[in-house]
Design a protein that fits this description.
It is built from twelve helices and five strands. By secondary structure, it is of the alpha+beta class. α3 packs antiparallel against α8 and α11 packs across α12. It starts with a helix and ends in a 5-residue tail after the last helix.
Amino acid sequence: MNLLKRLGIQNLFLSKKDKRLASSIKMMTGGKPFNISLYQLALTPAALGEESPQGYRVSNERLEFLGDAVLGSVIAEYLFQKYPLRDEGFLTETRSKLVNRESLNQTGIKIGIKNMLWEYIEDRPFTANKSLYGDILEAMIGAIYLDRGHAFTKNFILQRILLHFDIQGMIATTSNYKSKIIEWTQKENKEVDFKIIEINGNQRYKEFVVALRIENRDVAVGKGPTKKKAEQEASKIACEQLKIPH
């Protein structure tokens, strides 16, 4: 079966829609897909997943989990080799900046995942979360890893993903806005606290709404899929309003 896949015989039986998808995958990754079903699954967010005969929803979440792990390991090795004199704290923080949802979301759009998704799902309506394209990018990496192996996936990440990141700019930018706010309030001898004012969504998809308060006065409100991310967004807004350098 693997030989048939490598010879491309499997692709002779693809529908026109899947042939377009295969062409898009080849353009994005630099190599033709052997198992198109993996990429179809990568383009299936949980909101569009159908229930299997076994009773679970078929979606890209498992591929997203795998892709996240593969991406993290490749980025970790890249940073380890690129910055031989920097400590573990620097490497960890830099990796977090590179693989955060905002960075991956923008990168997913740049490499064509947005167009690929909407062409594939056609007119099926669903509610997209803010990190949709970043989530699908991770699922795609998982699909590529299973389809083409580690070496091909590593090359894809290093040659076609990293080029969209301004690594030096990210290193120079402080991403922990909450720490900046706490540092500033301590210096100014002011009290600061974060309060959850609302939790929207359901068990699978939640949105936290957090208020940042200084001296019992609401300064900013942030939203995010976790309490931590909502606090970071509120802190970023507060830094801008208070003109705190970051």
